[in-house]
Amino acid sequence: MKRSLFAIVFDVMVVRLVRSGTRWWWRSCARWVGVSALAASMVPALAFPVVVTDDQGRQVNVMAAPQRIVTLLPSLAETVCELGHCPRLVGVDRFTQWPASIARLPRVGGGLDPDIEAIVALRPDLVLTSGSGRVAQRLQALGLTVIALEPRTLADTRRVLKEVSRVLTGSDRDGTLAWVRLETGVGNAAQSIPPRSRGGTVYFEVGSGPYAAGEASFIGELIARLGARSIVPAALGPFPKINPEFVVRADPGVILIAADQAAGLASRPGWAGLRAVREARVCAFSPAEGDVLVRAGPRLAEAARLLASCLASKAPTLPTVAPGAMPPAMPALRP
Fold first, then answer.
1. pTM exceeding 0.90
2. Is the same domain home to 240 and 310?
3. How is 196-259 classified by DSSP, letter by letter?
4. Distance in angstroms (rounded) separating the CA atoms of residues 194 and 226
5. What domain range includes position 256?
6. CB 208 within 8 A of CB 183
7. SS3 (DSSP) at 183
8. Sheet holding 69-71, edge to edge
9. Predicted confidence pLDDT, tens digits, the chain (335 residues)
10. Among residues 307, 48, 299, 290, which one has the least CA distance to residue 161?
11. DSSP character string of 97-141
12. Is the dihedral of CA 248, 249, 250, 252 positive or negative?
């Protein structure tokens, strides 16, 4: 039978007591207490109840660490799992696909059309939902604890990681560490792009319509972090529906699009003349890759790697970019 470290240390101290007398015993005890106190001080205190102001401006009191959680937004389920608390999930929305361990969980509709009866039947002590619509008020009226959080930017992603960490553990430490991992991953992706592939323009289509990722979106922020620029200005909003003629006039250097839409690009009016189409500078993403790219959550470092791989292989050579030029840094961490 394996003995605990405490038992081994205790036996050693007893032997030393017998050999050296009681004076050594009291000195050792003092040291042991001091080390124990130091170790305890390094463990963050669990501060419940936690008060959270959610994205709808509601102050929500969380009295104890929730053990039965329902999420109604994929990025929120991913955040719970990234923080190490996947086993607490008892239900997710129909669009959540990651991580694989959630495949067995009940599906409770979507963020805009939740199955209220199914959610209540799961007896959650916390529901995490998006900041859109009246879902939070409907569920709260049924006596459920509901927090609306929806990351839309890189800064939002950091904030949501920290807030969900506070709600689950009483401390934002795990959320801060998750953000550091994310930031490091994005930085590594940026450094993987050769200088010659930086400084170009990008068209990122997020859906038919077409809808595009603009400079104001988290995708646009990632693209800028990697040294490129979305052709859709921030003034048009994060994900505007645009006129296809707009893309023709902008003539982006690289096009990023879902694989099932890539084959028909040349048949769009005027698009056959786009340099990205003529020179096959198109990155086509699978559905699984698309899930990573269009969600502002803990997998943004993976999204950055996908974008960086695309730019490194498809971006036109730009000799005017100074060797060693680096894109702007992500927002600095603050306590």
1. no
2. yes
3. GG-S-EEEEEEETTTEE--TTSHHHHHHHHTT-EESS-GGG-SS-B--HHHHHHH--SEEEEEH
4. 10
5. 188-314
6. no
7. helix
8. 89-91, 69-71, 126-129, 146-148
9. 444 444 444 444 434 443 444 444 444 444 444 434 433 333 344 688 999 999 999 999 999 999 999 999 999 999 999 999 999 999 999 999 999 999 999 999 988 889 999 999 999 999 999 987 788 889 999 999 999 999 999 999 999 999 999 999 999 999 999 999 999 999 999 999 999 899 999 999 999 889 999 999 999 999 999 999 999 999 999 999 999 999 999 999 999 999 999 988 999 999 999 999 999 999 999 999 999 999 999 999 999 999 999 999 998 875 444 444 444 444 444 43
10. 299
11. --SGGGGGSPB-B-SSSB-HHHHHHT--SEEEE-SSSSHHHHHHH
12. positive
Q: Does residue 156 share a domain with residue 84?
A: yes
Q: What is the DSSP letter of 266?
A: G
CA 70 to CA 85: how far, in whole Å?
Answer: 12
Residues 257 and 155 in one domain: no
Tokens 């020179």 locate to 279
Note whether 211 and 136 are same-domain residues.
no
Structure tokens at 255: 């096009």
Closest among 208, 207, 209, 238 to 222, alpha carbons compared? 238
Please give the distance of CA 222 from its chain centroid, rounded to a whole number: 13
Identity (one letter) of the amino acid at 102? Answer: I
A 10 A CB-CB count for 333 gives 10
CATH number of the domain encompassing residue 94? 3.40.50.1980
